[in-house]
Amino acid sequence: MSKPVVATTSLAGCFGCHMSLLDIDERILELIELVEFNKSPIDDIKTFTKQCDIGLIEGGCCNRENIHISKNVRKTCKILFSLGECDLMGGLPALRNGIPVEECIREAYLDGPTVGLNKEQILPNDDELPMILDKVYPCHEIVKIDYYLPGCPPRADLIWNALVALVTGDELKLPYEVVKFD
Amino acid sequence: MKDKVQNIIRNYHDDRTRLMDILLDIQAEFKCIPAEAIEVLAGQLNMSKVDVEQTLSFYHFFTYEPTGEYTVYLNDSVVAKMMGSDEIARAFEDEAGTKFGSVSEDGLVGLFETSDIGMNDQEPAALINGVPFTNLTISKVKELVAGFKAGKDVNDMVGQTGDGRNSDDLIKSMVNSNCRMQKGSVLCLEYEVGSALKRAVNITREAVIETVKSSNLRGRGGAGFPAGLKWEFCRKSNGDVSYLVCNADEGEPGTFKDRVLLTEMPEQLFEGMAIAAYAIDAKEGFLYLRAEYNYLKAYLEDVLQKMRDDNLLGDKILGSEGFNFDIRIQMGGGAYVCGEESALIESMEGKRGEPRNRPPFPVQAGYHNKPTVVNNVETLSTVVKIILHGADWFRAIGTEESAGTKVLSVSGDCRKPGVYEVEYGMTVNEMLEMVDADSVQAVQVAGPSGVCIGPDKFDQKISFEQLPTGGAMIVIGKDRDLLKEVALNYMDFFIDESCSSCAPCRSLTVILKNKLLKLMNGFGTMNDIDELYDWSKYMKQANRCGLGQTAANPIMTTIDNFRPLYEALVKTDDEFVSEFDMDKAVEASCKYVDRVPNVH
Question: B444 and B378, same structural domain?
Fold first, then answer.
C-alpha cells in the first residue's frame, strides 16, 4: 500500500506551528517512513502535484489568497487538520478584528512610527496583491475542518501523536502536558 | 461638585461597603458618575480609582456620561417586543430627535434600552427618571416628550394611578398590580399583622425552624432549596453575628410577582423577615430591592417605620427580651446576576455583583463573611402563614414534594395577564385556561433560564417535581416566530447580563447566538443544529453560577421541544456551509486603497 500523502500550509500565522512540527526532531525520519509529503514549506513543494490524504493548515484567513488556499487544501485533502491558535480562532492576527480595516491600513502604511520611507504616502493597491479582508477569519468558518490541534504552537508531541494515530489507526495519546497550557 | 460628592459619602459614614448607595446618590444628582467624583470617591473611601470603577462599570444604571435631564429606559425584553416596543422606540426617537443609546444634543432627553423592568403584564413600558410608565402608546409618547420639552416633573406626568395600593401617596404610580390572587389561598389569607410574629416569639427559635422545616417550604426564587434547612444551617454555623437578606432583585425577564407582593402586602413580607431573623438570631436584615423598583422605596420605608412604631421591628420586639431586629433597604444598580445570592451579597458589600465560589455557602460565610440567610420575597411572606396555620396545614396544600402555593407572573399572548397564586400541581393547560389564552404555540416557563415547552407538555404540573418555576410564565401565541422573537432575544439578554467571569458564559453565549443567526440567515446545516445542542451542554458543567449554567437553555429547550422549527431553516443537504461573503469582506479595504475588487 502506498504511503498516505501529507500537505501543510501556513496562512495568517507566524510559522511557529511549522517550527513545532520540526520539533519532533529525529522522529522526522520515522515520519517520512510513514508518510509522503506533498505541497508543504517543509519540502518546499509550492503547488499540489496530486490528491492528498491529510492536510494541515496553520494560520487563519486575513486576505483573499488565504481563503483561496484553504478552499484548495480542503478540495485536495481528504482529512483536514486545524493547526494552532491562529487557525482555530484567528489568534494574534485577529487582534485587529474590531478595528475598522481602514484604520489598520492607515496605521500600517501612513501613520505608524516606522513608515517614514513611504514619503509619497502610497497605499498598496496593485492587482497582484491579495485583497485584505474586513477581519481575520478562523479557517473553520471558511471550510469544514475535521480535527483541531490547539496550542500556540501545538506541542511537537501533539502533532506527532495525532499524525501517527491517524496513519496507524492506533488510539491518540493525549497526556495532560500535551494539551494543557497553564 | 466636590462638596456635593463629599457630602454624599459622609451620609454613609465614609463606608466603602456602602458604595452602591453612594453611587446611586451621585448618579441621581449628576445623571452620571463624573470623573471628578471617581477621584473624590477613591480618596475619601481609601480605594483605588480602579476599584471604584470596577463596581460602577458593572451596573447598568451607573454611567460615565450624563444620561439626559429626562432619562428613558425602555424595556427591550421578549414580551415588550411582542407588545410593540419597537414602534414605541421609534416614536421616542422621532419625538425626541435622538437615537436610542444617546442623548439629544440639548441634553434634554436620553434614550436607552434596558432588560426587563418587571412590568411584563403592562408592556410596552419604560422607566423615566426612575418612574415607571406602562402600556405606552405612540400618542402617550408624544405627550411625554412634549412634557419633557415643557420642563414638567415626571411625577406630574403619571396621570391616572394604578390599581390597589399603587395610588398610595408614597407610590402614586400608574403601574397596575393586576393582582388576580384569590382571597383565602395562602398569601392572601386574611390575618392580623403581627399575629404570626407574636406566635413565633412565644416559642423557641428552634421550634420556629422546626415548623418551617416540617412544612416542606422550599425557596420560591427558583432553586427550591428547603427554607427551614437553610435557616438551620445558618443557625448551626459558628458566627457571633448572622444576617438575613430578602432577595427582591427579581430580574428574570417575565417575573413581576415580587413587585406585587411588595406593593400589596409588604407588611406580610417584613413580618416574615422578622420571624426568620428571630429563628436565625439575626439583628440586621436587608431588603435587596432591584433598581427598577426604586419607585416603591419611599413607600416601603414608610411601612417599615409604621412597623417600628408598632414594635414589630426595632428593640425588644413585642416585648421579647433580646430580640432586636431591623431592616434596611439596599438598592441594586441594575444587574440581573445579582439575583444569585452570592452575587447579591457581593453587591451589598459595594462590589461587582460577581457570584462567589462555593463552598463556603452564604449560610456559612455570607455578608461580611458572616452566616447569612438569603430568601426570596415570596418565601419569606409565606412563612407568616405557616407560623399561623401550622406545618401540617401547609404541607396538605400542593403536591408531595412541592408544598403550598406558587405565585405566578403571567404575561404574553393571553387575555388576563397578571399575578396569580396557584396550588402546586396545576397543569399548564389549566393555567392557560385560567389566564384565558388560546392558540398557544409555546409557554416559556421560568424565564430565559427556564424551559420553553410546547403543547405536548402542557399536561405537566407546575411543581418542583415536573416543571419548576420562579414564577415567570410567558404565553407565546401561534403566530410568533419562536426562534427569532424568543430564543434570539434571550441569547442577547444573557450576553448582556453575563458578568464575564467564566469563559464559557462570556464567549460561548456569543458563539451560540452567532450559530443561531447563521441558521436564521439560511446558511445552516443539520450539523449546525447538532453542534448548537452539543456545545450548549457544556454551559451547565463549565460555569460557576446559575446564570451561566442556564444561559444556553433558550436554545437547548427549543431544540428539545421545537426541533422542526430549526430543521425548517436548513436549506441544504451539505455537511458544511460557510457564511463567508468575499464581496463584502474585501469591500472596505479595496475602497480605502482605491482598488477595484476582483473576486472572481
Answer: no
Q: In this complex, is the C-beta atom of A142 within 8 Å of any C-beta atom belonging to chain B?
A: yes
pLDDT digits (tens, 9 = 90+) for B391-410: 999 999 999 999 999 999 99
Q: Which DSSP string do the residues of B113-182 spell out, in sequence order?
A: EES--S-GGG-S-EEETTEEE-S--HHHHHHHHHHHHTT--GGGG--S--SGGGGSTTT-------B-PP
- Whether residues B493 and B522 share a domain: the answer is yes
- Per residue in B144-160, pLDDT (tens digit) is 999 999 999 999 999 99
Does residue B595 have a pLDDT over 80? yes
CB within 8 Å of B574: residues ≥ 6 apart: B525
Whether B350 is covered by a domain: the verdict is yes
Q: What total number of domains does chain A contain?
A: 1
User: pLDDT tens digit string along B262-273?
Assistant: 999 999 999 999
Give the percent of chain A with pLDDT over 90.
Answer: 88
Kindly identify which residue of chain A lies nearest to residue B507, measuring between CA atoms: A89
Find all residues with CB under 8 Å of B163, minimum gap 6, and list them: B176, B177, B178, B179
Which of B138, B161, B184 is the endpoint of a domain? B161
Domain co-membership, B293 together with B334:
yes
Chain A residue numbers with beta carbons less than 8 Å from the beta carbon of B594 are 123, 125
In a domain, A150, yes or no: yes
Q: State whether residue A165 sits within 8 Å of chain B by CB.
A: no
Residue A163 inside a domain? The answer is yes
Contact across the interface for B580 and A131, Cβ inside 8 Å: no
Residues from chain A contacting residue B580 (CB–CB below 8 Å): 67, 137, 141-142
**CATH code at position A67:** 3.40.50.700
Chain A residues with beta carbon closer than 8 angstroms to that of B576? 143-144
Q: Among A125, A142, A144, whose Cβ lies nearest the Cβ of B580? A: A142
- Determine whether the interchain pair B595/A144 forms a contact, defined as Cβ–Cβ distance below 8 Å: no
**B597/A131 Cβ within 8 A:** yes
Residue A110 resides in a domain? no
C-alpha–C-alpha distance, residues B517 and A24, integer Å: 42
The pLDDT of B302-326, averaged and rounded, is 97
pLDDT tens for B50-90 read 999 999 999 999 999 999 999 999 999 999 999 999 999 99
Does B233 lie in the same domain as B85? no
B501 and B466 fall within a common domain: no
A102 at interface of B, judged by CB pairs closer than 8 A: yes
Q: What is the mean pLDDT of chain B?
A: 95
Question: Model confidence over B362-378: pLDDT tens digits?
Answer: 999 999 999 999 999 99
User: Going by C-beta distance under 8 Å and a sequence separation of 6 or more, which residues neighbour residue B106?
Assistant: none
At B537, list the grid cell. 451542554
| pLDDT (0 to 100) of residue B600 | 67
Are B86 and B130 in the same domain?
Answer: yes
Q: What residues make up the domain containing B295?
A: 195-395
CA distance B594 to chain A (A): 7
C-alpha cell at B305: 417605620
Nearest residue, CB atoms, A102 vs list B586, B592, B599:
B592
Number of domains in chain B: 5
CATH number of the domain where residue B440 is located? 3.10.20.600
Contacts of A106 in chain B (CB under 8 A): 592
B428 shares its domain with B515: no
What's the ipTM?
0.91
- A124 contact residues in B (CB cutoff 8 A): 593
Q: Which helix (H) or strand (E) holds A80?
A: strand A77-83
Q: Which pLDDT band, with edges at 50, 70 and 90, does A1 fall under?
A: low
Q: Does one domain contain both B285 and B224?
A: yes
Asked whether residue B76 is assigned to any structural domain, the reply reads yes
Q: Are A40 and A7 in contact (CB under 8 A)?
A: yes
Residues A161-179 pLDDT 10s: 999 999 999 998 888 888 7
Mind giving me the DSSP string for B417-473? Answer: -EEEEEETT-BHHHHHHHTT--SEEEEEETSTTSEEE-GGGTT-BBBTTTB--SSEE
**Residue B131 maps to a domain:** yes
Contact assignment for A125 to B594 by CB distance below 8 Å: yes
In a domain, B466, yes or no: yes
Domain range for A46: 5-96+134-179
